[in-house]
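Suppose you are handed a protein chain with no further information: no name, no annotation, nothing but its sequence. What can you learn? This example shows the usual starting point.
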Amino acid sequence: MVDENRRETLKIFIGATAALGIGALTTPLVGSLINVKEMKAKAAHGSIEVVLCESVDNCPEEYSVPIDELRKGPKFVLLKKGTMAIPAVFGLVNVGGKEYPVAYNTVCTHFGCPVNPSGGKYLIGFSCPCHGSQFIICTNPNGCDGHAFLEAYVSTGPAPQSLRPIKVAVKGDRVYALRAVI
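A reasonable first move is to predict its three-dimensional structure. Written in structure tokens, the prediction is:
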């Protein structure tokens, strides 16, 4: 008769070995799905900039949200480019009565969990439910303690850096995503 602790240890060891083996086999597959020609490497912090549209004039509506919809509150959109899908949130930031359209990649820079917008009708920041990181949107046009205007910077860690921005432009009554940082 085998000792129960030994049996449990053996199960954990076999499970971990199988998981590592599957990870080793799937890593090259996942890497091959990313179309490198569609991405432009960005030096800062190892991030990559994905060009969704060269200009607002050639941007499809699937990369946009009506401004009137944003006036009701933030809107989640899945931006698809080739084999990639970038989770994003579009919203408006109110600064002194003026509305600024913004969009952010909703993946936490700590461990990759999806972040939740805060502020109600107008975005003021984001929170990560996994490990408690908080991101605040800088609403000072002159910057906030070294952070740029409209940057969603870390106010409470463990996230190491700000949320990744999505460059937007307004055309007519819609806000379009032009470039996303992943």
